[in-house]
Design brief:
The chain is an alpha+beta fold and about 180 residues long. The chain contains 5 helices and 7 strands; from the N terminus they run βαββαββαββαα. A 5-stranded mixed beta barrel has the order 1-3-2-4-5. The chain has a two-stranded antiparallel sheet with strand order 6-7. The longest helix has 24 residues. The relative contact order is 0.21. Bound molecules: succinic acid (SIN). Succinic acid (SIN) binds next to helix 1, strand 3 and strand 5.
Length: about 180
């Protein structure tokens, strides 16, 4: 039997698994936050990066992409999301459908050992601009997510201001690198 899985972070733009359907979708009562540490993808155990998780937020809608997948795909996803994420079963509203479907998402809850929790936008931006791991830079993760949400025509009041800050930090760092090389 196939299932739906809802992606709200890298699962929106890094699709390294087969799927039968891909649909823009919404879940209710959750919001994205860069509060989860990443030791294995966008950081290291010594210098974790920050990636998104979902925090319960009554009345808030979160946009993402739902995929209909075969059961075997969960082996791959459980491994990919192993650093603190657990599967959660919930209703997902697919764009254009009146009735929700039931499916899964991966959420990193506050009690997982890699959870980092809240910080100011400036602190989050400095952290993300500096971190890097086996899957690439933490800045690229954030900027790719911001771009993917933009393509979904969805403004995220946490992700987009953070992406602007990180973009500016990375640009000023590149400028400094170029000036140093010219010295
Ligand atoms: C997701 O994308 O749905 C989970 C978080 C992540 O892997 O970035």
């Amino acid at each position: 039997m196939t299932s739906w899985v809802f992606g709200y972070g890298s699962l929106i733009y890094k699709v390294d698994f087969p799927f039968l359907e891909r649909r823009p979708a919404t879940i209710e009562g959750w919001e994205r936050r860069f509060w989860q540490g990443s030791h294995d993808h966008r950081g290291t155990p010594e210098a974790p990066g920050r990636v998104v998780t979902l925090i319960e937020a009554p009345g808030v809608a979160c946009r993402g992409i739902a995929y209909r997948v075969e059961p075997a795909v969960f082996e791959h996803l459980d491994h990919r999301e192993k650093n603190g994420y657990v599967r959660h079963h919930l209703p997902i509203t697919l764009d254009g459908e009146a009735a929700p479907v039931w499916g899964f998402l991966y959420v990193a809850r506050e009690d997982n050992p890699a959870f980092l929790g809240p910080a100011s936008l400036d602190e989050l931006a400095a952290h993300i601009a500096a971190a890097e791991g086996p899957s690439g830079s933490n800045g690229d993760y954030l900027l790719a997510l911001a771009q993917a949400l933009h393509e979904l025509e969805s403004y995220d009041a946490h992700v987009h201001p953070l992406a602007e800050r990180v973009d500016a930090l990375l640009a000023s760092r590149q400028g400094a690198g170029r000036r140093k090389a010219a010295d």
